[in-house]
C-alpha cells in the first residue's frame, strides 16, 4: 500500500493525516476514495470544504508522514508541518514537499460502521518536474513510501518486475 498524506482545511487551518486506505475507484471521470475513521479531526474539514488532497510522499518523508499519522489535529497543530499550496479549488491545502499532489472535489460520503468513505473527483494533478518521465509520473523517481500493516514498517519501492498487460501474454 502506498502511504498518502491527506490534506484538508479544518476550521480555517491546514491539517494533514497519513492514510494507507486510498484507491482510484473510477477511471473516466477519475475518482479516488479514502477511508477515514470517524474519530479523526480531518473529517469535519472535508465535509466543510467539500474537498481534500491526496499527496504522495517519497520514502525520504517517512518521519513527517508518520508524525501526521500519530498526532491528531484535535490536540496538535499540524498546519505548519509543510509548505501548503492551493490549486483550482482554493479550498484544499496540498503539500509542496511531496512529489505528487492530487486535488479532489468531494462527491459522496459513504458511512461504513466506524469509517467514512470519502469519494472525490480528481480536479487536477501536480507533479514535480524531476519526477516525470516522458511527461508522466515515474514510480521509480517518486520512490513512494510503501506501508505494510503486517509488520508495521515502511518500505521503499523495489525494482520493476515485469510489464503489466504484457507479461501475462507470454505464458
Ligand atoms: C502508516 C499509517 C497509515 C494510516 N492509514 C490510515 C487510514 O487509511 N485511515 C485512517 O482513518 N487512519 C489512518 N491512519 C491513522 C491517522 O493518520 C491518524 O490517526 C491521524 O493522527 C489522524 O489525524 P487527524 O485526527 O488530525 O485527522 C494511519 C496512520 C499511519 C501511521
Lateral strand order in the biggest sheet: 2-1-5-8-9-4-3
Would you tell me the structural class of the helices and strands?
mainly beta
**What radius of gyration results from the CA coordinates?**
16 Å
Mean pLDDT: 96
Q: What features would you highlight for this structure?
A:
seven-stranded antiparallel sheet; two-stranded antiparallel sheet; 3 helices; binds flavin mononucleotide; mainly beta; 171 residues
Structure at a glance:
With 171 residues, this protein is mainly β.
Compile the SSE list and pairings.
Layout: E1 4-10, E2 13-19, E3 22-26, E4 31-37, H1 42-49, E5 51-56, H2 62-70, E6 84-85, E7 94-95, E8 100-112, E9 115-127, E10 132-133, E11 136-137, H3 139-142, E12 146-148, E13 153-155
Antiparallel strand pairs: 1-2, 1-5, 3-4, 4-9, 5-8, 6-7, 8-9, 10-11, 12-13
This protein binds flavin mononucleotide.
What does this protein structure show overall?
- With 171 residues, the protein is mainly beta.
- It is 12% helix and 42% strand.
- The chain is built from 3 helices and 13 strands, in the order ββββαβαββββββαββ.
- The strands form 4 sheets. The protein has a 7-stranded antiparallel beta sheet. The protein has a two-stranded antiparallel sheet with strand order 6-7.
- The protein is globular and about 55 Å long.
- The two termini are 27 Å apart.
- Flavin mononucleotide is lined by residues 3, 15, 17-21, 35-37, 40-42, 66, 68-74, 147.
